[in-house]
Amino acid sequence: MQSQVVGVTVLLLLILGATQSKHRAPRRYTPDWESLDARPLPGWYDDAKFGVFVHWGVYSVPAWGSEWFWWHWKGEGRAPYELFMRNNYPPGFTYADFGPQFTATFFQPDDWADLFRAAGARYVVLTTKHHEGFTNWPSPVSWNWNSQDLGPHRDLVGELGTALRKRNIRYGLYHSLLEWFHPLYLLDKKNGLKTQYFVSSKTMPELYDLVNRYKPDLIWSDGEWECPDTYWNSTDFLAWLYNDSPVKDQVVVNDRWGQNCSCHHGDFYNCQDKYMPGSLPDHKWEMCTSIDKSSWGYRRNMAMASIASEQEIISELVRTVSLGGNYLLNIGPTKDGVIVPIFQERLLAVGKWLSINGEAIYASKPWRVQSDNNGTSVWYTSKGPDVYAILLQWPENGVLNLASPKTTSTTEVTMLGLEGSLKWSKEPLQGLLISLPQLPPSAFPIPFAWTLKLTGVE
């Protein structure tokens, strides 16, 4: 009898413990990297895989050189920029004079959102403020240097967010911590960063305002490199973001929160612009790159030689996802809010490819092997028991040799976008040999990057 009582007591304690753990308060993160880095990555971001980056600001008015126009004009490499200004603008023209010309006259947020959805983007990241300091929303701490008081007289951040969310596209906000020529930032630097006048009156109020006002799914921080995270108060902000903000459960952030933070702290790592690892990293990462290889902002002097081809973009997307990353592809609209046709064409090409091959991309995971390079470049992804082999080149003899998959008696090979199974054989010395469809690559809807689905493999 006594043993029965003990058994019942233990059972009740287990049930009580399970009930309490179910209703236990969520974890509180403390403002230090050890605690913040322990936060699990919200699943939506890893599933999304593909996003569109939008660089848009006053630099879109001169639209020459790059989005760093002001810095080069007044700082490093100024000679060609001074010549450009002398040839195109009257004497005494200042950077602030570009502000009223940033009109966004033809900005139609619903059209943008439709384009991004057609491109297959699962999230979009908009520059709310670049290093020039101009804000694309009515920031209360950016008086007369924001899109509501000057230029468009519109809340660009809010309008695009509304359009994206109607289409179930996640919304990310890019924000630069620094401003090149802000007097308070220059004062803090002059004081050896022993003061934080700029952080307390500009940077942090903006970040809190963006989160509370627009409830972003992602914060893409930048402009961190001159100062440590202790100057920026980054960990205090992130602890609030993860614990108490209106987006605490779904928001994700990158790794640019102070000197030496890149590739070390954050929900996902950018490491550096156009970063591509050589092997599978052990932390979630993102490759950000631009259709215009020479600039992130729109340039009037852009030439076709600097435009990434459809094949280059899709090949980078495939490699990125195979290595466990997300692919963030940038465009720069004009000062009027027009996305020029060449950028639209590239985005729509990605969307067309994803409409056929998205099964191998969205919500996929890296496989045990990331690539085979035995004459044909092949990258692998997986989803549950299924393995996807994405060919970046069509073998000359029409037979694909895969060294890594181990077949079983139930193995089946199909090509996404085509009906029917493909013939295959297993050769002891050659591996898995797959007979591809007897069609020229040009006969396919997308004449590159074909996806084979392998079921029943070990």
UniProtKB/TrEMBL annotation:
It comes from the Eukaryota. The record marks C288 as: May be important for catalysis. Coiled coil: none annotated. Homotetramer. Residues 19-359 form the Glycoside hydrolase family 29 N-terminal domain. It catalyses: a neolactoside IV(2)-alpha-Fuc-nLc4Cer(d18:0) + H2O = a neolactoside nLc4Cer(d18:0) + L-fucose; a neolactoside IV(2)-alpha-Fuc-nLc4Cer(d18:1(4E)) + H2O = a neolactoside nLc4Cer(d18:1(4E)) + L-fucose; an alpha-L-fucoside + H2O = L-fucose + an alcohol. It is an enzyme of class 3 (hydrolase). GO terms for cellular component: lysosome. One of its GO terms (molecular function) is alpha-L-fucosidase activity. InterPro entries: FUC_metazoa-typ, Fucosidase_C, GH, Glyco_hydro_29, Glyco_hydro_29_CS, Glyco_hydro_29_N, Glyco_hydro_b. Residues 370-455 form the Alpha-L-fucosidase C-terminal domain. Belongs to the glycosyl hydrolase 29 family. Alpha-L-fucosidase is responsible for hydrolyzing the alpha-1,6-linked fucose joined to the reducing-end N-acetylglucosamine of the carbohydrate moieties of glycoproteins. Residues 1-21 form the signal peptide. Keywords: Glycoprotein, Glycosidase, Hydrolase, Lipid metabolism, Lysosome, Signal. One of its GO terms (biological process) is fucose metabolic process. This is Alpha-L-fucosidase. Its EC number is 3.2.1.51.
